[in-house]
Each structure stands twice: as structure tokens, then as C-alpha cells.
């Protein structure tokens, strides 16, 4: 598992697309056990005034309504450690693995994923971290309002 | 706290609206500490082919993009015990209380809510249970596909 992995590359493309749109630059991609992309998406909080369209939720939403079996053995790639909501979504759909770009910006529900038997991989990718660092320095209020109200 | 509580009545109305639309009859309502309704919604899995618009997610989405402070002291009313995704969403936004109609149909992330200091109330409401029983008996496949793939 490296940052060259196709699923991760798509998640990173999505994060960059979010940045282009002036949004919070977090992207995700859901890949099934056969390597097929089921969905991809990015955080739409600012673009759609959305409280729930985080990158992983956008991705699951874009994948559409699938039977539970479709998620068996799937990997959720995300450029940032998943928050509690997105962690819960990965547990709900019983994905097998979560691969994150980084967790320096935020540590989400990694422990909870591990407790539920979901493999967690951190790529410690500098590009993902850089995207978030740039966003937070340019839009501190849009980030801090999430963190402390 | 009883089934006459205004927030719960709205959640139940939402569940019934979902039933009318042929959807999974689960409704929710988010009420802030001053008793103001911030959002309301119902499960849209069938209506929108949505993997993420559970009742609580629809409700948070309909409430729009709010600062974290808006959720302080808030109560999430839902007609059914919240799944892991919706549990995670309540933890993300740090609502103070989750009031559910019933948990006979499904026991979601109640323990996790309690561990995180969120008060959990179960109204054991027969009407909520009846709505789900009717839906599952009439559309067993649409429910079981969620449970076992």
C-alpha cells in the first residue's frame, strides 16, 4: 500500500477538485474487492452548505443504493482521518479497510474502526497534509467553526 | 419525556410521511436547547436511491451548515434507534441527547452514545414499532438487503 495506489490517487484528485471549488479539500474513493471504483466524492460543506456531505459520505452517496454485499471487502480511501460520522458510515456498511492520507490535521475515529475489525492504514502523505494546511491558513474561520463552535 | 414531546411528534410525522412516499418509515427532528426545531427529515433510501440519507442524516442536512455552537444542548429525536453512521453524526455534532421511538426493530449505537456522554432515552413507542413492522412485512427485501446483503 503506497500513495501510488489507484484508489488513493482518485481520493487525492477529489480533494484537489474540492480545493478548486473553494471547498474544504478532502476527497474520498470507495473501491470494491475486485478493484472497481464504486463511488468517489469530496467534501461539499461550503459548496452546498451541507452538514453531512463529508468526502466519505459524498462518496457513499455517489455510489448509490447498493446491497450490503457490494461493500464486502471494499476499501474506503480518504485524504484525511475520518470523523466520527464517516467512521460510523464505514462501520455501517462494513467496509474492510480504511486508507487515509494523513491524520496530522485531525485524528478521527481510527480506534473505533480498529475495534470493529476494520483495517486502518495511514499513508502519511505530505500532499494531503499540505492541502489542509493551506486551506486552514486561508480560511481559518471555516475550519475552526467545526472544531470549537 | 413522553411520546407527547413536540420534537418526537415531528419525528413521528416525518416517519409517516416516509411511509406515504413508499419509503422506509423512519423520521427524525433536531431541536436546540431553546426548543427551536433546527431541522426535520425522514429516511430517503428508496425515494432517492440514497445510501446516506437516513432520517437523522436528512435532518442534519436539512438543518444546513451551522456553527458547532448551534448543536450545544440539542436533542436528536428519531423514531428508531440510530445506526452506527447516525450515531457517529450525533457524536460529531455533540448533541446532548438522543430520544428514540423504539429499539425493538434494531439496536444501533446506543452504547457508543452513552460512552460519549450523550443521554439516550427510549420511548418504547408502539406506533413507531408498528410502522416498521408493517414496512418490513410488506417490503422484506428492501429491509433485509440492509441487514445481510
UniProtKB/TrEMBL annotation, chains A, B:
SUPFAM superfamilies: Cytidine deaminase-like
Compartments where located: Cytoplasm; Nucleus
GO CC terms: cytoplasm; nucleus
UniProt entry keywords in alphabetical sequence: Cytoplasm, Hydrolase, Metal-binding, Nucleus, Zinc
Pfam families according to UniProt: dCMP_cyt_deam_1 (PF00383)
Pathway annotation from the record: Pyrimidine metabolism; UMP biosynthesis via salvage pathway; uracil from cytosine: step 1/1
Gene Ontology molecular functions: cytosine deaminase activity; diaminohydroxyphosphoribosylaminopyrimidine deaminase activity; metal ion binding
EC identifiers of the protein: 3.5.4.1
Reaction catalysis annotation: cytosine + H2O + H(+) = uracil + NH4(+)
Any single biological process term in GO: pyrimidine-containing compound salvage
Chief place where the protein resides: cytoplasm
Family from the record: Belongs to the cytidine and deoxycytidylate deaminase family.
Reported function: Catalyzes the hydrolytic deamination of cytosine to uracil or 5-methylcytosine to thymine. Is involved in the pyrimidine salvage pathway, which allows the cell to utilize cytosine for pyrimidine nucleotide synthesis.
Protein name per UniProt: Cytosine deaminase
Native species: Friedmanniomyces endolithicus
Gene, per the UniProt record: FCY1_4
